[in-house]
Design brief:
This protein has two helices and nine strands. By secondary structure, it is mostly beta strands. It folds into two domains: 129 residues, no CATH class; 37 residues, no CATH class. The strands form two sheets. Strands 2, 3, 4, 5, 6, 7 and 8 form a seven-stranded mixed β-sheet that branches. Strands 1-9 form a two-stranded antiparallel ribbon. β6 and β7 form a beta hairpin. The structure holds zinc ion (2 copies).
Length: 167
């Protein structure tokens, strides 16, 4: 959706509101696959402050991803905020604090997608407490308990352990 900034030329208006949805199926972020299971929703305002225009957008998205520990897909809902000064783009300058536009029709799609990438949790986890997969038998330890003993032996002591088994 494009926001018509020319409305702000009206002296009596101090802000314009807008809302919309972005239909995006997936994002590949360095091999991390994010599937949006519903349209990305946003609503925001553009304010006139003195001679500046300030944009503030609330963004909500729901996505599915594979858990990095148990390898099961999980669904997560996140929200984030895009805000900054609107600056008419003149050259190749690029500043994260600023949302650029080039004509009176503002398209925030790219800025919203960039904010989503920044707002994603660092690690794809179905749950902070996800127990993951047993490295020995391969069961999902969130669903099943196995009797595997995961030995975490310092390689320097491994020799001693072998030795004791020989008796
Ligand atoms: Zn998990
Ligand atoms: Zn196991």
């Amino acid at each position: 959706m494009k926001i018509d900034l020319s409305k702000l030329h009206d002296e009596t208006l101090s802000s314009i509101s807008f809302e919309g949805e972005i239909k995006k199926n997936e994002l590949d972020i360095n091999g991390r696959e994010i599937k949006f299971i519903e349209p990305i929703k946003y609503d925001g305002k553009i304010y006139k402050v003195d001679d500046n225009k300030i944009v503030h957008v609330n963004i909500t998205y729901v996505y599915e991803e594979i858990c990095g520990r148990c390898l099961e897909p999980f669904v997560n809902r996140e929200s984030t905020v895009l805000s900054g000064k609107l600056v008419r783009k003149s050259n190749d300058e690029d500043d994260d604090e600023v949302v650029y536009y080039s004509d009176e029709k503002l398209d925030l799609t790219e800025d919203i997608i960039s904010m989503i990438i920044l707002s994603l949790p660092m690690k794809p986890l179905c749950d902070e407490e996800c127990k993951g997969i047993c490295p020995k038998c391969g069961v999902n330890r969130n669903e099943e308990d196995c009797d595997c003993v995961i030995e975490d032996i310092d390689p320097r002591f491994a020799i001693l352990k072998d030795f004791s088994f020989k008796e």
